[in-house]
Amino acid sequence: MATITAALVKDLREKTGAGMMDCKNALGATAGDIEAAIDWLRKKGLAKAAKKSGRVAAEGLVGVAVEANFGVVVEVNSETDFVARNDDFQALARSVLAVALDNGAGVDAEAVKATHYPGGGTVADAIANAIATIGENITLRRAQGLHVAHGAIGHYVHGQIADGLGRIGVLVALQSSGAHDALAAFGRRLAMHVAASSPIALDPQGIDPATIARERSVLVEKNAGKPPHVLEKIVESGLKTYYKEVCLLDQPFVHDPAKSVAQAIKEAEHKVGAPIAILGFVRFALGEGVEKPAEPS
Q1: Do residues 32 and 134 both lie within one domain?
Q2: Residue environment code for 103-112, b if the CB has 16+ CB neighbours within 10 A, otherwise e
Q3: Mean pLDDT of 251-256
Q4: How far apart are the first and last CA of the chain?
Q5: With CB atoms 3.0 to 4.6 Å apart as the test, which of 41, 115, 222, 238 could cross-link to 47 if both were Cys?
Q6: Which DSSP string corresponds to 22-89?
Q7: Does pLDDT of 1 surpass 70?
Q8: CATH number assigned to the domain comprising residue 178
Q9: What is the chain's Cα-based Rg?
Q10: Which of 146, 137, 145, 140 is nearest to 114 (CA)?
C-alpha cells in the first residue's frame, strides 16, 4: 500500500481545492497516484478544478525578445530568487536570449546550448562558467520562437524585474497585412491576456485528444445514471465550458470579459484594416511543472 504523505495531500489540495480528508481518501483510493486522485475527486464533485499549470516553482528568469517578425522566449533557472536578481545572472539571461534570437526559426534549448556564445565557447560553456562563479546550479530549461511572414509578434513580460526579464513571458504570432503599429498594440494586449488566462491551445482542435477523452470520462462518470440522451447533452455542454476555460479563441477577453478573444480579434481587424490570423502563442511561467525538494519538517 502506498504511503500517503502530508506533502502529497498538500499538493493535491493545492491542485484541486478539495478538503484535507477528501484528498486523503482520494489518494488512498488511487494508491497515491495524484493524477488519478484528481479525477477521483472530480467524479465525486469534490474538486473545484484540476489545475494544470504546475504550482511548484523554480527560481530564475523568463526572458522575451522580438526583432522584426521573429520572437523568442527562454527560461533560465537558478536555485534562489536572490541569484535571479544578481546582475551577472541577468547579463547571462540577456546573452542567452540574444543567442536564441539569432538562432532563427526552430529554436529550442538544446540548439541554443550548442550555439556559439559571445566571448568564446558555447552557451553551455557560459552556463558552466556562471555556475562556478555564482555558486548555484543554473540551467537553460527551455526556449521557443515564433515567426510570421507578414504581421507582428505580440509580446509581454509579467512580473518584470529588468528589461525583458520576469516571471512569465508570452509571445503571440499575428499574421496580417494591416497597419503594423495597430497590430502590434493589439498583439501586446493579447499577450497580456495569455499571461493572465493561461490557455493550453488556440482552439479545441489543438487540444490533445487524450485530454478531451479524460474530460469526457469525468463528465460521464460524474453524471452517471442519467438517461443517455440527457447525459450526452450534459457532456457536450460541459466540454463547451471546458473549451471556454482553456482555448484562447473561446476565452473571455481579459480586457473586456463581455466578449470572447475571437470577437476581440474581429473588432481589432477594423482598426488594423485587414484580417488577423493567430498562428500560435507561447507562454512560459517560471518554474512551471518543476518539482523542488520538499522542505525539511
Answers
A1: no
A2: beeebebeeb
A3: 96
A4: 23
A5: 41
A6: HHHHHHHHTTT-HHHHHHHHHHTT--S----S-----EEEEEEEEETTEEEEEEEEES-HHHHT-HHH
A7: no
A8: 3.30.479.20
A9: 22
A10: 140
3-state percent breakdown (helix, strand, coil) of the chain, nearest 5? 45, 20, 30
Q: Which three cell numbers stand for residue 242?
A: 471546458
Kindly compute the dihedral angle of the four CA atoms of residues 35, 40, 43, 48, in this order, to the nearest 10 degrees.
-60
CATH number of the structural domain spanning residue 1 = 1.10.8.10
Range of the domain at 29: 1-51
Select the more confidently predicted residue: 269 or 290: 269
The tens digit of pLDDT for each residue in 183-192 reads 999 999 999 9
Whether the per-residue pLDDT at 297 is higher than 60: the answer is: no
The residue to which cell 527560481 is assigned: 59
Percent of the chain scored above 90 by pLDDT?
Answer: 64
Length of the chain: 297
pLDDT at residue number 293? 55
Helix (H, G, I), strand (E, B) or coil at 193: helix
User: What's the mean per-residue pLDDT of the chain?
Assistant: 89
